[in-house]
Amino acid sequence: GPSEGFWYTTGVIALLLVVCAESVAFSNYNKYVFLPENLPAPVLYTATCQTLSFCGAVLIWLLAPEWIYKRAPLNSTASFLKVMLIPVGFVMNYGMNNLSLKYTTVTLNQLIRSFSPVVVATTSYLIEGKTQSWPILITLCLLVVGVIMGVGTSPDFEVLGTMICSGSLIGNAISIVMTAFVMGDAKVKLQPIDVMLYTTIPSVIILLPWSLTLGEIETLRRSLEENGSFWTMAWILIGGFLACTYTFIYVLLIKMTSSVYFSVSGGFRTIAAITVSFFIFKQQVSVKSLIGMGIAMSAFIANSYFTLKEKVEEMDKRSQLEMKKPLLGDKQA
Q1: Which of 94, 152, 194, 243 pairs as cysteine with 190 (C-beta 3.0–4.6 A)?
Q2: CB of 277 within 8 A of CB of 27?
Q3: Sign of CA dihedral 39, 40, 46, 51
């Protein structure tokens, strides 16, 4: 029958497709919501999405039988502090990313965030001690070249939006690496729902004061008056649903693979998000920018291939070692 590696690869590819579809929908949907005439309050919007994600996680916790999900408690201060780094990273990541969409295009935003695998690989080495193979390192270098060409020569280049989006990469790395770290920790093995339960409300607590300083409550009030309560609430609820399902799926993908692999899998999301955004929003592109995008996308795909190949080879080796073990454990005398 099919090997464990085959089913693993099939499962990962299926998750990648879902994550890709959700990411494209989420990026372009958020850009639409943040248009000046709609609800340009990205930090407050992110806080409401996190609140709704928490509500979804609580419902699963209360209604799901134990054989499907059982909450993992945090029994030590060290475990608690590790988990609390995730919302800090999340706020830097999604809060700054959503804010950058007010000032820059989806294409430029996605290209800058394509730099994520390099930042995540570095953070993963510093926190988890993980090193990368030469093929993966080479594709990461090509990725850097492509991103610099794609961003630096883009007619839509905008300094403030680029700086805010670049800052979100640090938060992205902290959030992804720490999520992988706590789910693989020998003492605290968290499930995706655990991560949502423990990290969403701390994120909201950090986001709300930031939103107040940006005057987004007034923006919300103006949207309610101009667009009506129905559309304003519909935008928030749809965003919350996308956030809840996307968070669960991407945390599950990190659990099945690794923090670095999840970041490089962004290539699929980037290609799709950029392509779709050209059909939805009025955006410019230069020849050099297109060449840079091509290099970056090719590097992404190659990186994803080598990472998945290495993961499957590791699984095959483990399977072979298991097969070589004596059936009854100890050798007969």
Answers
A1: 194
A2: yes
A3: negative
pLDDT digits (tens, 9 = 90+) for 212-240: 998 999 999 999 999 999 999 999 999 99
End-to-end CA distance of the chain: 34
What residue type is 277 in one-letter code?
A: S
DSSP string, 125-187: HHHH-----HHHHHHHHHHHHHHHHHHHT-TT--HHHHHHHHHHHHHHHHHHHHHHHHHS-SS
pLDDT-flagged residues of the chain (< 50): 1, 327-333
Rounded to the nearest 10°, the torsion over CA 223, 229, 234, 240 is: 70
Structure tokens at 166: 């670049």
What CA–CA distance (Å, rounded) separates 46 from 214?
Answer: 13
- pLDDT tens, position by position, 129-161: 777 788 888 888 887 788 777 666 666 677 888
- Asked if 41 and 173 count as a contact pair (C-beta separation under 8 A), the reply is no
- For position 201, what pLDDT does the model report? 93
Tokens 């030469």 map to which residue? 134
Please name the residue that has the structure tokens 């999604």.
94
Going 43 to 241 to 239 to 29, the CA torsion angle's sign is: positive
Q: What are the residues whose beta carbons fall under 8 Å from the beta carbon of 89, sequence distance 6 or more?
A: 171, 172, 173, 174, 175, 176, 178
Q: What is the DSSP string of 178-215?
A: HHHHHHS-SS----HHHHHHHHHHHHHHHHHHHHHHTT
